[in-house]
Design a protein that fits this description.
two-stranded antiparallel sheet; acyltransferase; EC 2.3.1.225; 6% strand; elongated; single chain; 12 helices
Length: 374
């Protein structure tokens, strides 16, 4: 009896928490509805006298309003994506992991499971990223949201203003929502300002519309400043292909932490969120590439470079001459990628660098352009 009472109380508290989570969304909706009434009726219908001006104001306003509401809706009701079933522990692995008391053995068990999965990030101490609440190996950039009680692919943050987790499935919509919100507030402030001045100096009669127009400008400016700061921050994150969580804590890869591990350059970073189809960039329609489980990394792009791929690491050994053999093969790859003129220019730059530092020049810098023809 006592146990059932506790379960009922816990369920009631969870229900209350879910309802309270919608309060910020309700506040935004009420403010937007009031702004619609104040702008359309109190400003355009009652205050603006010129018919052409009314038509222009209302046409542009409703276009921005439609995109603003559309992106806000998508940000709220696009569910965050969870990892694929293959990342979850099997029942047998889960039992063995929980029954094992030695941390080093548990760590090895996770490493063995992760070998079959496309995961390249680790914890700070080099262990496989594992969620002990969802019992799964976390894909790269995946994190557990304590509010949603689940792991979210490419989680950015949990936003109370949309009552949803922002991640792989809806980050594009969230950015668009911020952009159209900024434009919405800026447009209202710009078109209301002249009538605000007229009411302020007494050129317009002191009617009920005065309160709405004055307060509309104040609210639009207030939201514009706060939204512009948030939008600017996320534009900076987008340009570096980072999430909010990665900006605070750099992802750790197999070779250590790298704050720019997913940075592919501005254009490719942008396409990682908005896709390559330019027709969909302004529309809240899903176009992000991939499935949210794995992402291209800067280190992988470098490994695909013909000059960096399959580099053979060697030590100077004068007795067996292996160093010169490897150097010769590496020179062949360089020569196949660049012309002799380009190589001579590169040699001159390296020589000046050694001269400035006072270091001894390696023998390779004394080769002539003919020496590069293998």
């Amino acid at each position: 009896m006592r146990r059932s009472w506790k379960m009922a109380l816990s369920g009631g508290l969870r229900c209350c928490r879910r309802m309270l989570a919608w309060v910020p969304v309700l506040v935004i909706v009420l403010v937007v509805l009031w702004s619609y009434y104040a702008y359309v009726f109190e400003l355009c219908v009652v205050t603006v006298a010129n018919t052409i001006e009314k038509v222009i104001y209302l046409t542009v306003y409703h276009a921005l309003f439609a995109f603003f509401i559309w992106t806000y809706w998508k940000s709220i009701f696009t569910l965050p994506h969870q990892p694929h079933q293959k990342f979850f522990m099997s029942y047998g692995d889960k039992e063995r992991y929980e029954n094992e008391e030695r941390p080093e053995v548990q760590k090895q068990m996770l490493l063995d499971i992760a070998k079959k999965l496309p995961v390249y990030t680790r914890t700070g101490n080099g262990a496989v990223r594992f969620c002990d609440r969802c019992h799964l190996i976390k894909p790269d950039r995946c994190h557990h949201c304590s509010v949603c009680s689940m792991c979210v692919l490419k989680m950015d943050h949990h936003c109370p203003w949309v009552n949803n987790c922002i991640g792989f499935s809806n980050y594009k919509f969230f950015l668009q929502f911020l952009a159209y919100s900024v434009l919405y507030c800026l447009y209202i402030a710009a078109t209301v300002f002249q009538y605000f001045i007229k009411y302020w100096v007494g050129d317009l009669p002191n009617t009920r519309s005065k309160f709405h127009v004055l307060f509309l400008l104040f609210v639009a400016c207030m939201f514009f400043v706060s939204l512009m700061i948030l939008f600017g921050y996320h534009c900076w994150l987008l340009s570096r292909n980072k999430t909010t969580l990665e900006a605070f804590s750099a992802p750790v890869f197999l070779n250590g932490p790298d704050k720019n591990g997913f940075n592919l350059g501005f254009i490719k970073n942008f396409q990682q969120v908005f896709g390559e189809n330019k027709k969909l960039w302004l529309l809240p329609i899903g176009s992000s590439p991939g499935d949210g489980h794995s992402f291209p990394m800067r280190s992988m792009n470098e490994s695909q470079n013909p000059l960096l791929a399959n580099e053979e690491h060697w030590e100077d050994n004068e007795e067996d001459g292996r160093g010169s053999e490897v150097l010769s093969r590496f020179g062949e790859r360089i020569y196949s990628a660049y012309s002799p003129q380009a190589m001579n220019s590169l040699m001159e730059i390296l020589k000046r660098g050694y001269a400035n530092t006072g270091s001894h020049e390696p023998e390779i810098l004394s080769w002539s352009s003919d020496s590069w023809a293998f």
